[in-house]
What we know:
By secondary structure, the chain is α+β, with helices and mostly antiparallel strands. The chain is 28% helix and 28% strand. Strands 1, 2, 3, 4, 5, 6, 7, 8, 9, 10 and 11 form an eleven-stranded mixed β-sheet that branches. Helix 5 (162-173) packs across helix 7 (209-217).
Amino acid sequence: xxxxxxxxxxxxxxxxxxxxxxxxxxxxxxxxxxxxxxxxxxxxxxxxxxxxxxxxxxxxxxxxxxxxxxxxxxxxxxxxxxxxxxxxxxxxxxxxxxxxxxxxxxxxxxxxxxxxxxxxxxxxxxxxxxxxxxxxxxxxxxxxxxxxxxxxxxxxxxxxxxxxxxxxxxxxxxxxxxxxxxxxxxxxxxxxxxxxxxxxxxxxxxxxxxxxxxxxxxxxxxxxxxxxxxxxxxxxxxxxxxxxxxxxxxxxxxxxxxxxxxxxxxxxxxxxxxxxxxxxxxxxx
Length: 285
């Protein structure tokens, strides 16, 4: 059985240089960061491991190196100590050959395993406010997809705004690639996909990480889209976070009974007024 969220051997982005902000440096990870990232992963508490996908120790370094080679990982360090990593995030554009596995088997936004649990609509002028909707946009295979993978901020720096800044910087790093993908594919929507365990998600009117991501995203849309959407749709599908034995000799998750229930989330940003105004329920098989 496939699950949401890719492996915690994270990857990095396309910044040509680093960005300094609020005393922190945001940069693309390079091979010198591998040791620092692995130390962060090794320091995860039991609570952290219940929220993030942590693969067996035997495979972490190789997987992380591969992600760095693909320029899919972004790291945050304190100014004056570039090797002291305080956070990371994995972000990349999903290629056509990856969509089947990630969208259908992990996020589960279409296909026979897909089960939509909740749909909200946000007005971009007021991204803190949402309303449930029975009329919504579902992802389409012709859309451009950006994957927001595992992210982690050290406990002592949480609540300082780094998560927001890290999300923004990672998307900014991909800005031109996103613009090119939209143009080449003539995408009707730009979609940001990610997995969440239930503990991190919003419930009963309380906002969760999905809403933090939305608020990080909205200010960037005018630089990405010719016609920034007035509405953004958040769809949440039933999915799971896999659990691994850290000392396993194979890179296979434990049984389904050990997985953590969660959501495959898709933020759908319509790229034309027609697509936005004619939002409707569609089902892809």
